[in-house]
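Hi there, hope your week has been kind to you so far. Thanks so much in advance, here it is:
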Amino acid sequence: MINWENLGTAVMGNTVPYNSNDQSRIITSVKAGFKKLDWLRICRIPLSFNSSKGAFPGHYWIEIIHEKEDMIDQHIRNAREEKKVEQEIIDLGNVQSANGFRESYGWYPIALPVTITPNDNPYSTSDIPIGRIEIKEQGIINGASDSRIAKDASKYRDHTTERDAGREIKKKDEKTEVMILENNLSIYPFDPHQSSRFRESEIKMVSHPYLFPRDNRTKDEIIEEIRKFASSFSSDHSALWSWCIDGYSEVNCHTFLFLLLGKLELADPIIAEDKDDHFRRYFKSVKSNNFSNPKRLELLTKLDDISKELKENYEYYVSY
């Protein structure tokens, strides 16, 4: 017998874990005309102290899948086989391939994000020396700060290993929007968490976004928009990384992903099914304080609206 009450929990992709004990399997599809972007992956590791639900501190990011991302330059392949540390590989230069790194983007603090403000009240300083503790720090795309890069330099690192730093997009100069994708490890910028795809159980929620039938943008156009958004996030949205328990003022990897999807008008099945607690709480807080950042509210509202419209066009099938 079909349990219709659970029908709405089906989500495209692998956002709902497969339960081998279920006698029936629910498959969700979308009406004709909606375009699933299977070359884009929205990856979520929610903040949680329960390893089955997420990780601490967790992370959200987006991946662009390229056909030749697994190609590795021979001299780098040789260096990896010899277990050379990252700085030795960087010193080889002559990067011509992706070298296994998947193009991807996320927002990170440049270092440990704790800011301590001394207590300036002369009547209580001796008893309470700390006035305020905030979880914030200068932010950077893909954690590509000098301090993070230095942590990886003396260790063996490749595209499959955990690391502190990824690589960001560089601007050719301040007067032009020309972007430089290549870096000293790959022809693509990459988020440190892109290696989690080799340990897929780490990523608790994965989905592919959708374009609506009326949207005629090409793959190349969408990729270009993602790159522009990432390269200008610091100047257009915030130069800081911060966390405030999903409060309206925070700007972190969650914020980056939500604003990116809203800006590019990419519908997300996870949000359509109300499966993202971070989005739900953050959006509610921003709506309650809409005076603080109207631009942010506009993009979040757009993401919520188009994702709901996607759900309205779901069709469900049950197979045994």
Summary: The radius of gyration is 21 Å. Residues 4-66+102-141+191-319 form one domain. Residues 234 and 280 are 24 Å apart (CA to CA).
